[in-house]
Amino acid sequence: MSRDRRMGALTGIAIILVVLGHLDMNELSVFGLFPYYSFHVQIFLFVSGYFYNEDDEDSIGRYFLRKARRLLLPYYICNLAYGILSTILAGHGFTYCQPITLFNFIIEPWLGGHQYGLNFAAWFVPALFLVEMINILARKLWNSIAGLLCKPGDAENTDLKRKRTTLLNVLAFSAALICGVVTVVLAQTGHVWGYYKTPGRILIMLPMYEFGILYRTVLENYEKRLPDAAALLAAGGIQFIAYIAAYGSLNYSIVWCTSFAGMPMIPFVTAICGTWFWLRIAGLLSDSRIGSFLDNTGRHSFRIMMHHIAVFWVINLVTMLICNAVQPEMVFDADAFKTNINYVYQVRGLYAWRLVYLCVTWAFLTLGTESKCHSRCMIKV
Questions:
Q1: How many whole angstroms separate alpha carbon 162 and alpha carbon 155?
Q2: How far apart are the first and last CA of the chain?
Q3: What is the structure's pLDDT at 341?
Q4: Cα–Cα distance between 138 and 144 in angstroms, integer?
Q5: Between 172 and 330, the higher pLDDT residue
Q6: pLDDT value at residue 347
Q7: Which of these, 285, 348, 325, lies nearest to 13 by C-alpha position?
Q8: What distance in Å separates the CA atoms of residue 98 and residue 87, rounded to the nearest whole number?
Q9: Fewer CB in 10 Å around end: N or C, the chain?
Q10: Are strands 378-379 and 2-3 parallel, antiparallel or unpaired?
Q11: Is the pLDDT of residue 116 over 60?
Q12: Average pLDDT over residues 150-176
């Protein structure tokens, strides 16, 4: 097994964009043309789909257990730790924390995922698990039906099998895209609310997962023939058209199924363009030291996603203690710290101080052993 450094670098870019987004630092948005919330979550779905293995359909039970062990087990272990911490903090006036209950420990992660504040970014993990289960079950059903319609000897026909797989991948992406577009229409008209947000976010996430499979099996060989400059210009050009069509409002919320501007196809266009743009950047950097840095960051993406908000909180706590004990004139907003999970302290109001949060978070969560929980970035050679 050899690590795919290009996909590793792309994953590293995506998790960096997630952290930058939560710090409200837009320096990598390319003058606002590629705002993070228009595609960064979708990159993880694309990468996960890219590494989907059709052989797993031979044993769905084993696939389920493996995914549960890699995703849900570490998620719930962390969720328990954050639930206990949240219970303590709720008693000390932190309004974005709540006491742990059976409901918000077991059920709420599948509904909203923001149950304990300090780990809210990890809402993506249970949602990804559901996407992966829906994908493999749908493909197993399709293949079972197709198997009944096969003629004797078709199973040994390699060329026919390849064509059917290609057709399946095209149809899977098309069906997922249609469901996603319909969901966006329903969200725009106010029909995706309450418990409907859970199936809503899954249907919005599914097209990019299927696109990852389609890209690996059909599109990649053609896309790679395009020069890097042409690919970057094409991605930027299409994105610019979407930017104009949406009046510059390309950001949207997958988790809450809100803020979809313009035509219902735009969120998926921007997801593909943003992923395509940064995929080419990742390819250009993959063999460099920067590429190694990004790849290493990608190895720890699960850990960073799960814990970076908590690291921000610790930085705020330490800063508050220092300000109170050493430099009272350094204004620290204790009320905002307790009521706003996104509060970031800036020395003398200097925006660049946010880099401290970024650097400390990266150092704390990437140094040490590699995370075993992140979806694999490995391919056979």
A1: 11
A2: 6
A3: 95
A4: 10
A5: 172
A6: 87
A7: 285
A8: 6
A9: C
A10: antiparallel
A11: yes
A12: 80
Q: How far apart are CA 318 and CA 322, in angstroms?
A: 6
276 neighbors 231 (Cβ within 8 angstroms): yes
Cα 203 to the center of its chain, rounded Å = 14
Task: Report the domain count for the chain.
Answer: 1
Residue 372 confidence (pLDDT) above 70:
no
Q: What is the pLDDT of residue 323?
A: 86
Residue 328 lies in a domain: no
List Cβ<8 Å contacts ≥24 apart for 99-107.
105/76, 105/79, 105/80
Give the torsion through C-alpha atoms of 307, 379, 203, 166, to 10 deg: 170
Flag whether 324 is in a domain. no
pLDDT (tens digit per residue) in 197-243: 999 999 999 999 999 999 999 999 999 999 999 999 999 999 999 99
Residue 122 to residue 45: CA distance in whole angstroms: 14
Q: Two tokens at 48? A: 């996960």
CA atoms within 13 A on the CB side of 229: 0
Q: Which two tokens stand for residue 67?
A: 């995914």
Task: Give domain status of residue 299, yes or no.
Answer: no
- 180 residue type, one letter: G
Nearest to 239 by CA among 61, 101, 34: 34
Residue 16 lies in a domain: no
- What pLDDT is attached to residue 324? 84
Torsion of CA 33, 217, 177, 147, to 10 degrees: -170
**pTM of the predicted protein model:** 0.93
Percent of the chain with pLDDT over 90: 84
Q: How far apart are CA 371 and CA 81, in angstroms?
A: 18
Task: Name residue 331's beta-bridge partners.
Answer: none
In terms of residues, how long is the chain?
381
pLDDT of residue 246: 94
Tokens read off for 325: 């004990």
pLDDT value, residue 164: 84
Separation between Cα atoms, residue 303 and residue 316, nearest integer Å: 20
Q: Where are the alpha helices (DSSP H) in the chain?
A: 5-22, 40-50, 60-67, 73-90, 102, 108-111, 124-149, 158-188, 197-214, 220-223, 228-245, 266-285, 289-299, 301-325, 334-339, 354-366
Structural domain including 112 reads 38-287
C-alpha dihedral over 5, 43, 243, 280, to 10 degrees? 10
